[in-house]
Amino acid sequence: MKLLPSRRGVLRGGGALALSTGLGSALTSCSSTADDGVGPDGRVTIEMWHGQNDTARAVLKRLAADFERTHPHIRIDLGGGVLADAMLQKITAALASGAYPDIAYVFGSDLANVARSPETVDLTGRLGSDKVPWKNYWPSARAAVTINDRVRASPAVLDALAVVCNKKLFQEAGIPLPEAGWTWDDFIEIAKKLTDKAGGRFGTGWPGTGDEDTVWRIWPLLWDLGGDFMGEDGRSIGFAGQGARALGVVRDLARDKSVYIDPKPGSEQLYQVFNSGRMGMVPTGPWQLPDIRTAKIDYHVAPLPSFSGKPVTISGPDTWTLFDNGPARSKAARTFINWLAQPAQDVRWGVEAGSLPLSRTAEAEPVWRKHTKSVEGLTVFTKALETARVRPAHPAYPQVSQALGQAITSVLLGRSTPAAAMRSCAESANAALLIPR
């Protein structure tokens, strides 16, 4: 199975960087002009901008058809015609015009800005059911859709970051496969040993564009060192002191020439290098396993390394965000997303479209258990959800991410030291946090 390009950047949400500055004025000027969606026969039609293509779209289409058979009073219009990477731009324009869908696939990192619109439905107390209680969702899924203690969307897709290793290259280098508890020093040393400059082989890879695909990989290092997005004063970043050490890992990989730096957005080239057998380790999510298996790479999945020896990773939930087109359509939209989250549907979505179960109940489903037995390493990703963290749902996150991305890239390319890059990052990021929103 091959997922849509945007799922490979599930934790990216890069579109927010270009649009968040002007988002507030566009969103607050909205007014709905849509009808109530109820036809002469009493059937309610809801419009869903799903953001998917290829395999994932086909899965969602089958799920919608099954839903309509069991809920004959609701019809799902899978319209929108835009992939997830372009969703923020389309939603922004739609809200400004007053003609918007009932449900849209919104990156978790874009939710804080989208939720500023008064047309975004507040799902507090309305998400979950007897089959999937709210507290049964993984903590990272709950955190990703909660802003200022209010539930502003429903989790749609859940992932986590781990390290996939090429067993053949490890064996040839005489290196034991890493297991839980390994450190970033181990990672650096192993990457160096796996590198063969003459043979065009790299120890690992890192996106070098400075976008969110570059940034989300550094957050587990910052968290593990005690950093956070916001400092205690609420006016400055909370990782200025930890940033230089985290960037030191990037510097060491670049110094050893053991890292393939992907110059293009989306990490496509990085994954091609791994799938061609010329990279020893790649930090990635479960969405990449189908391609790795198709490439016939004999692989091993290890949890992310850490500084502390304790498990730490990042999860990237994306969301189904609801918009208010009247009581009938809003109720129908809630009914559909709650149905999607029930274990039977959630497991189908996860198995067929390459995601992780949204809840512990879904994880326990026999179909999911059977699936994990047939896919090497999938349980490592699922276990990581127990301690995974998510990026903050904060309107200034895109600007802070942009500053951090520039810092990472400057160190990767040898243009700056970790300390100097972090000083520049802190200056730009702190300025962004002071802008009223």
In brief:
The protein is an alpha/beta fold and 437 residues long. It has helices at 5-8, 15-19, 23-28, 54-70, 87-97, 111-114, 139-144, 167-173, 184-194, 212-215, 219-224, 240-255, 268-275, 289-294, 327-341, 343-353, 360-363, 366-374, 378-384, 397-412, 418-433, and strands at 44-49, 74-77, 103-106, 146-147, 150-151, 154-157, 162-166, 204-207, 228-230, 237-238, 259-262, 281-284, 299-302, 318-322. It has 2 domains: 5-158 and 316-384, D-Maltodextrin-Binding Protein, domain 2, CATH 3.40.190; 162-314 and 396-433, D-Maltodextrin-Binding Protein, domain 2.
CATH T-level topology of the largest domain: D-Maltodextrin-Binding Protein, domain 2
Strand content: 5-15%
Distance between the termini: 41 Å
Mind telling me which CATH architecture of the largest domain this is?
3-Layer(aba) Sandwich
- Which percent range fits the helix content? 40-55%
Q: In which order are the strands of the major sheet placed?
A: 2-1-3-14-6
In DSSP terms, counting alpha (H) and pi (I) runs of 4 or more, how many helices?
21
Oligomerization category of the chains in this entry: single chain
Could you state the CATH homologous superfamily of the largest domain? Periplasmic binding protein-like II
**The number of domains:** 2
**What is the CATH class designation of the largest domain?**
Alpha Beta
